[in-house]
Amino acid sequence: MEHDVVIIGGGAAGLMCALTAGRRGRRVRVLEHANRCGKKILMSGGGRCNFTNTGTTPANFLSANPHFCKSALARFRPEHFIAMVDAHGIAWHEKELGQLFCDDSSKQVVAMLLAECAEAGVLIETSCSVETIRAAPAGGFALRTSGGAMATESLVIATGGLSIPKMGATGFGYDIARQFGHAVLPTRAGLVPLTLSGKHQEHYADLAGVSVHVSARCGKARFDNAMLVTHRGLSGPAILQVSSYWEPGKELLLDLLPEHDIEAWLLERQREQPAAELRTVLADVFPKRFAQRLCEVWFTSKPMRQYSHGELPAIARQLAHWPIVASGTEGYRTAEVTLGGVDTGGVSSSRMESTTVPGLFFIGEVLDVTGWLGGYNFQWAWASGHAAGAVA
């Protein structure tokens, strides 16, 4: 079977690449090893798909080369994807911080992409595994798959990363990259809950389900959002965001009251509520169970009037620089993304094409480009897929 473009991977990036190339009149075939396309799209956003973020900039991405994502993001912007969504009559809403979700279901986004692919003449083969790939002597690539042999002029790797293996994630894309001489940077789980152990876990374990608005800081990265205590450690948007910057040995600090001048607030409470105990005062700004635990383990609770001139400022400093000693992360099992991947140093930032192997393209999460939580990774999938589809 002869094709102009074969795309391995029927996720967000692969389908966008397919429909873009198909619209150009290219003969496109998508090979998806799962039994259906877009599984990660279907589960995202609690089943409502956080399909983009209106505030997307290159600063929202991590990569060994922070400039790599600029070209593709500039040429396919959130408004371009929104226009497609609107054209298909899919109702959406902004939840917070520029995050756009379907009003109804993630299934609508997958159906839209598949409809666009069908209109562009794209052939999609599911439950199809790729067994071998080799460069053809006359150019292009020869593939052997569970569905038979095929040849193609352009080959696009859209296989994703290692996140959520129960959904079929594998390192196959990295293997292909290495086969053709591309470097693959070390990978690790990103946007992932952190685990605690020992006394650090004991202090929080029975607070599972409690949520606190915090500012999580690791190095220069800072994220203000909710932290959720879990049975194994900490999760919630603020923790997931900062997890992409944290590694064992790095300092991780929380400001537990980011919207307060904590020292001034405590001194004001001392003046206005001198008889109130600290745990009662803290329960005005924290969930009651969390406030009680702070006073049981870290602070002595007594009437506010009994705190000396230096004690309340010391408590304020601790609340503003709360150390978290994580033992690790929950790993790829629950990670939303994979950090690292195919080194962008060997890939064209405008075309997503290998700079050493003509006709070989890498798009989406398989590349060393990882977005923040909140629709950024989908926008990278759309943008990189479009960039490759425009030339493959």
UniProtKB/TrEMBL annotation:
All residue ranges annotated as the RsdA/BaiN/AoA(So)-like insert domain in the record: 188-337
Protein name as it appears in the record: Membrane protein
Any one Pfam family match given in the protein's UniProt record, by short name: HI0933_like_1st
Cofactor section: FAD
Entry annotated with the keyword Flavoprotein: yes
UniProt cross-references to InterPro entries, sorted A to Z: BaiN-like (IPR004792), BaiN-like_dom_sf (IPR023166), FAD/NAD-bd_sf (IPR036188), RsdA/BaiN/AoA(So)-like_dom (IPR055178), RsdA/BaiN/AoA(So)_Rossmann (IPR057661)
Domain RsdA/BaiN/AoA(So)-like Rossmann fold-like: 3-390
UniProt keyword annotations, A-Z: FAD, Flavoprotein
